[in-house]
Design a protein that fits this description.
With about 80 residues, this protein is mainly alpha-helical.
Length: about 80
Amino acid sequence: MLEIFYHPIYTNGISKDSKFPRDRYKLIFESILKSGKNYNIKFKTPEKIKIDDVYKVHQKEYVDDFINGFLTTSQQRK
């Protein structure tokens, strides 16, 4: 069984103005569900991460700016 994590925020959490093909995750998820075929896939909803774990892999200042909506346009495009 292949477990795939999916959450609507993977699409809705990306700006509509982004060049990133934000609908891809939703479309793949819906396509698999609507197909009715057994691909031996189980979709799972991810658990919310602890902020201290995010700080372990990203700079604290960047994370705090992201959470509080203070990223510059340039930072948002990275």
